Amino acid sequence: MTASDLHAVRRQQLYELLGPLPPRDRPIDGEVIRTSVQGGYQLDHLLLDLNEDEPVPAYFVKPVDAQGKLPTVLYCHAHGGDYVLGKDELIRGRSALVDPPYAQALTVAGYAALCIDFPIFGERRGLSESEAFKLELWRGRVLWGMMVYDHLKAIDYLCGRPDVDANRLAAIGISMGSTMSIWLGALDPRLKVIVDLCCLTDFDALIETRQLDGHGLYYYVPGLLQHFSMGDINALISPRPHLSVAGNHDLLTPPAGLQRIDDHLRQVYADAGAADAWRLQRNNTGHFESEHVRADVLAFLGDQL
Q1: Which of 3, 18, 59, 277 sits in a 20 to 30 Å window from 31, CA-based?
Q2: Kind of pairing between the strands at 191-197 and 112-116
Q3: Is the whole model's pTM more than 0.70, yes or no?
Q4: Mean pLDDT of 191-205
């Protein structure tokens, strides 16, 4: 079995742990509700038909007067206990991120970007996280599964847009958005570049340091530890470029776990002949982005995308 074939088998195993999700090939559609110009970029307010349960509000941004197909970033918003912010993080930022918000930073650099509201966040809030988690359990699946599914379908949507270069797609996010970017990179080879900030969490290290409550209920997938470590999930991104940024004082990314993942992925990428495509940047900081991290993120996207 080739490395590519093995990746395909493992991707399917990972996906199946999420439960009986809607069909991956179900048709999608999108409606532009309103378009405006702000901060030097065009902002489209979208309503996307991604799943079988509810329409998904989203933002799509691109440089004003942009022509042709653009390299595009799927921006995955964070949790932070703020169920109101949701996709507005793309255009407004949050306290864990530096200025300007990523909508402005990315469009100035020539990218388009899409951000959807996760279930229970932004315009999709209503049920509490625990209610939504319990409801999905009754349906035989998990909340994280529906979150992942919506983002995979968002990639489908991007690939169908005439202004998006489907061969130059990236995913990026901080905290919950970091975890989403990793899972999407592992599950969908159409993403060519992955950038994750502040959530490269080794599961065993999280258990050892008793930080399981640092993550919300959304994070937990039944049976995951029987089949995958966080290193195993990240390995499915190889040999595509992947920048991970972590704080040594971040309780969600225990240092011993970071070292285990880094050692594993260095070997995986070396074996794939792509040693330079994996980079873990560890800083003596906490659960937040810094100015130099933002500069490194944009430089990485510029080099790789």
Answers
A1: 18
A2: unpaired
A3: yes
A4: 98
